[in-house]
Amino acid sequence: MDALLAGAALVLAPDNLLVMLLAGAFGLFVGGMPGLTATMATALLVPVTFFMPPVPAISAIVTATAMAIFAGDLPGALLRIPGTPASAAYVEDAFRMTQKGEAETVLGAGLVFSVIGGLVGAVILALLAPTLAEFALGFSSFEYFWLALFGLSCAVFISTGSPAKGLVSVLIGLLLATVGIDTTAGHPRFTFGSVELLGGVSFIPAMIGIFAISEVLRWVTGPRAAAHITRQFGNVFRGQWALFRRYKVNVARSAVVGTGIGVLPGAGADIAAWVTYALAKRFSKEPEKFGTGHVEGVVDAGTANNASLGGAWVPAMVFGIPGDSITAIVIGVLYMKNMNPGPTLMLNQPELLYAVFVTFFVANLLLLPLGWVAIKLYRRILEVPREVLMPIILVFCMVGAFAINNSVFGIGIMLVLGVLGWFMEENGFPVAPAILGLVLGELIEHNFITSMIKADGRLLGFFERPVAAVLGVVTLLVWTWVVVGKVRQVWQDSGPRRSAA
Amino acid sequence: MNRRILMGALLAGAVAMGFTAAAEAAYPERPITVVVPWGAGGGTDATARIVASLMEKELGVPVNVVNRTGGSGVVGHSAIATAEPDGYTIGMITVEIGMMHWQGLTDLNWESYTPLALYNEDPPGVNVRADSKWQTLAELMEDIKAAPPGAMKASGTGQGGIWHVALGGMLQAAGLAADHVQWVPSQGAAPGLQDLVAGGIDLVTCSVPEAKALIDAGKVRSLAVMSAERNPAFPDVPTLKEAAGIEFTVGAWRGLAGPKGLPEEVTGVLVPLLEKIHGMDEFKEFMNQRGFGMVYKPPAEFAAFMAERDAAFGGIMKGLGLAQ
Fold it and tell me: Among B75, B153, B217, whose Cβ lies nearest the Cβ of A319?
């Protein structure tokens, strides 16, 4: 208790609150710019944290990432360009809602449920950190393989329209994921002798290209009479209480699932958003509305991506194993601040550990007012004529694609995939499954190959560990169920047509 | 018309003279970029940033760290080697420069650089699960020798990574085939250690700082360290020679280098500066804090060190079937 109070005192000190305020504004800016991610916000903060005591350093990172994940919703909802990968899962729904004149509802939902998700994640972090870390540490490549494969089945749920086109889209993503040095054998694949391609198709430039560049292309080639939404936004908080009451089960489910995915090493906010979006659609009473501007998936995924942030700190602090790409950077900062991750952190410096928990709490509460201001400011973007806005977006996209590896090659990837994404959308291929394939491709391949090496090539090895066996059976059942369902659906759809003909 | 050409020529001349004057001014007179071939937040990045901040303080010009990641380090190492040799782009080169070319990933090797200073080397430890039956390295080596080739599994980094080569070298030195223990590639030490704790593999070779948190947590036991001396942070962990009579030492190293052909004006400034930084309390404190091993080798010794390691790694990597 003393340690908790000491920790809270450290966090609530005026200078620390000022740091959080500045870091929050920084995080909102970074997250709101298409292509600049929460991970990048953390990396940019690292040199600044060199000169800070431990608690402000951690506070700055926690605050900036929480804000950035929320702010990624803003360009997603208003421009159909997700600001960070964590917002990509529900960008279609969010943008369609804006088109229907429900911008304040969707932005308010993004904000309110981000805060709720973040707070739940913080509570779980504070209560269960050691237990959860212990559980996550028991996962070997067999379990990860099944989890990743299960994640891929989300593609079936998130793709709208023709299942065959959704499958093609997933395969495009998986194909792109094979480019570069193969992670297990170390052999270059599809690199054509290019040193830059050895690094593979970077996810961030690919995402910017597929979402943002294709949007710019669509605007260039489409009719210019796009309606401007110039009216004032209403109260973004109106109706949120009703949404919460209607979707309280979704919120609880997504907060827990999101935190859980965050705890697992290697899976972060983006995967949490995809999975919970798919779950929402699966369990929804009105799954047909998903992808047409329905708030339910936004509620679920918006809750989960912020909840996962706290979860990712669990294995990072308890065992020094990063839960996502943000905490991979954080571990370095912790070492530098003499907060060596490990169980001894709890024994030696409990006040610092509690300070991290309190920081998560304060940061998410701070998100409410700061996020509200950000929405108010961001709204003005819609008043900017598209002729001015689109070139500015293009510049930011280039900055983002360049910044990820400091290489012009990233801009090339972005442009090529932008054209690809545009062609896909023009021909009715959903782009979201391609992104999912790109995210999960390496995870699936790597865990499959390493599992095969460990099991000396016996496929039964995938069912020999208890947790792996359960995950494997569940995944196979879901896949069978999906395939049977789709076949039956196609059969029924084509039945009447055939008899009519 | 003529007048314009004349003006142009004068202007060009003035510009050229300006450049000459600039070249004669003391190095450095504009910001320096330090290229890091590995990601932000990792060990190489962290050490690069502390060196850069100290350089900045001493030189009075900004020193920027730029991460050029990807391609198992090939992308960043290429960026350093192909930069203009003017002293304004230097970088961190790491142990992989003596390994990548054996695998046929690049033509670059240690001779593609102007070495400036070696400042860090971390030897790997041999780690097993804390609840495993192996209490000493001698017991582990006995079981490895008794097991059929490929039956035992080890991890700690990607295929052909430094800890893979370290394991192969240790097995060769013990009179076994370098690939007697099957390597399971992982994306770094942390995922490899997690797989060890999860019961997926038998042993992990990785640096002592990387395993420290899990050793402290009582999840992992370190049986030996592949260096000539024990690690001061773990005085109870013996060396390979002490534990099983195996004569083999290796380590992951990091050093600063520039593209080949850095002029003397540049090396004359940077080499003494880096030696000075290595002796600074701020630097020592940081390295000890993170558990990074400190060594220092000036350019000539650094080059000899890289040549020697390059040859040794070639032999081990051929034994592992990695060299092309």
Answer: B217
Query: Which 8-state DSSP code applies to residue B93?
Result: E
- Asked whether the beta carbons of residue A181 and residue B201 sit closer than 8 angstroms, the reply is no
Which are the contacts of A250, defined by CB distance < 8 A and separation ≥ 6?
A280, A283, A296, A299, A300, A303
CA angle B152, B158, B160 (to 5 degrees): 85
Q: Are A136 and A401 in contact (CB under 8 A)?
A: no
Among B61, B106, B55, B110, smallest CA distance to B282 is for B55
DSSP H helix total and E strand total for chain B: 11, 11
- B chain contacts of residue A183, beta-carbon cutoff 8 Å: 158, 185, 187
Residue A290 one-letter amino acid:
F
Instruction: Give A347's contacts (C-beta < 8 A, 6+ positions apart).
Output: none
Report the residue from B43, B106, B187 with minimal CB separation from A183.
B187
- Which chain A residue has the Cα nearest residue B213? A342
Per-residue pLDDT of chain A (501 residues; tens, 9 = 90+): 677 888 888 889 999 999 999 999 999 988 888 767 888 788 778 778 877 888 899 899 999 999 998 998 998 888 888 888 888 889 989 999 988 888 888 999 999 999 999 999 888 888 887 777 777 788 888 988 998 888 777 766 666 667 788 889 889 999 999 998 887 777 788 988 887 888 788 887 888 888 888 888 988 887 765 555 555 667 778 888 888 888 989 999 999 999 988 888 767 888 889 889 988 988 888 888 888 889 999 999 999 999 998 888 888 887 777 777 788 778 778 877 777 777 667 667 778 878 888 899 899 999 999 999 998 888 777 778 878 888 888 888 888 888 777 788 889 999 999 999 999 989 988 887 888 888 788 888 988 999 999 998 899 989 989 889 998 998 898 888 877 877 887 787 776 554 444
Q: Starting at the edge strand that comes first in sequence, how are the strands of the sheet with B113-122 ordered?
A: B63-67, B32-36, B89-94, B252-259, B113-122, B294-297
Q: Is A349 on the interface with B (CB under 8 A)?
A: no
Comparing alpha-carbon positions, the chain B residue that sits nearest to A343 is B217
Neighbours of A126 (CB within 10 A): 17
Q: Where are the alpha helices (DSSP H) in A33-140?
A: 38-49, 54-71, 73-79, 91-99, 103-137
The tokens describing B129, both together, are 């699960």
**List of domains in chain B:** 31-115+252-319 (3.40.190.150), 124-244 (3.40.190.10)
CB contact under 8 A, B186 and A333: no
Chain A residue with CA closest to B37: the answer is A405
- Type of residue at A245: R
CA distances for A188 relative to A197, A200, B105, B320, angstroms: 9, 9, 8, 18
Are A76 and A91 within 8 A, CB to CB? yes
Nearest to A204 by CA among A419, A492, A473, A407: A407
d(CA A283, CA A274): 14
Of A184, A318, A328, the CB nearest to B159: A184
Establish how many alpha carbons lie within 13 A of residue A418's alpha carbon, considering only the half-sphere containing its beta carbon.
23
User: Which residues touch A117 (CB under 8 Å, ≥6 apart)?
Assistant: A251, A254, A255, A258, A302, A303, A304, A305, A306, A307
